[in-house]
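Query form — protein ParM/StbA family protein

QUESTION: What is the three-dimensional structure of this chain?
INPUT:
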Amino acid sequence: MAEKAGVFSCDNGGHSTCIVTAKSFSQFPSVKGEFRERTLVNPSGTHDYIVEFKGRRYMAGTLAQTESRFPMQMHSRSKQHLFFDLSTMISLHQFGYDKNYLITSVPISMHHEEEKEGIRKRLVGEWSIIVNGIERTFTIEDVKVAPETVSAFWIHEPEGKTRFLDIGSRTVGYGTTLKEGSVMKYIDSESGTFMGKGLEATETTNYEEFADFIAGKLLAQWDENDKVYLLGGGAKNKLIVNQLKKYFKKTEVMENAQLANAKGMYLLGRNVYGRA
Ligand SMILES: Nc1ncnc2c1ncn2[C@@H]1O[C@H](COP(=O)(O)OP(=O)(O)OP(=O)(O)O)[C@@H](O)[C@H]1O
Ligand SMILES: [Mg+2]
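ANSWER: The C-alpha cells for ParM/StbA family protein are given below.
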C-alpha cells in the first residue's frame, strides 16, 4: 500500500525541479508555458505535463520546452510566485503523499523571515491539481524553507570548515559550514548568493571566464586551500570545474550534483520533522 504521509523535499530551481523522498528521487525541467491546443500531438515523454491548477491550464516540463510559445523560467529574486508554486504542486502530484511535510529551498540571500513566511503561507493547506488528466488531492501539512547550497552539508556532514559552491541557472550560491564535533554552524559572513549570475541568467558559453569571475569574487573570503564541494547543474560542466580547480585545488564535484540540494534538504527535513 502507498505511504500516506512523509517528508517531501523539493528544490524548485529556475531550470530544474529536484525532489527527494524516502521512496523516490527525480528531477524535471521547471519550465512552464501557456496551454494551447496542438494539431500535431506526439507520444508523451516522461516529463511532458499538461496541468490544470486553480482553473487555468498550462504546459510544463519537457512539453513546455518544445511546444509552448512562451516557455518561462522565472528569474525573480523571490520564490513567492505561481511559477515556483506550480513546480511544487506538479512534484507533489507526481511523487508526493496524501499528507506532505514539505521542505523547500530559497537562495541563501533570500533566506529571511518575510520570504520564508510568505512561501509557507502560499503552500500550507489542501490542494487539488490535475496533471495529464489525473486529478489528485493532497495536503501540505507544514513547510520548512531551507537555504540552497549549504543544505548539501547534511549529505556528509563534513568536519571542520567546508565550502559549498552551487552553480545554478539563475544564481550561483556560495556557502560555508563549520562542524566541530556535534556542533554545526552556517557561517553567514562567508556565504551568499551571486544573484543573476547563473548559467542561464548570464546566457554565457564562456565557461572559463565564468569560473574566473566566480573564483575571483570568492578569493576575497575563501582560501585556495579550502575544501570546496561543487553542486548544481554547473558542476556537470567540465570546463567550469577544471577552471575552478586552478583556484581551489581541493575542489570536489558532489555525487549527483544537481540533486544535492534536494538530498541534503531531505536529510535535514527528516531531522526537523522527526519522521521519514
Ligand atoms: N549535463 C550537463 N552538462 C553541462 N551543464 C549542465 C548539465 N546539466 C545542467 N547543466 C547546466 O546547469 C544549469 C542548471 O543547473 P541547476 O539545475 O542546478 O539550476 P537550478 O537549480 O534550476 O537553478 P537556480 O538554483 O539558480 O534556480 C543549466 O542551465 C546548464 O547550464
Ligand atoms: Mg539550484
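ADDITIONAL NOTE: Residues 11, 13, 148, 166, 168, 232, 261 surround magnesium ion (ligand 2) (CB under 6 Å).
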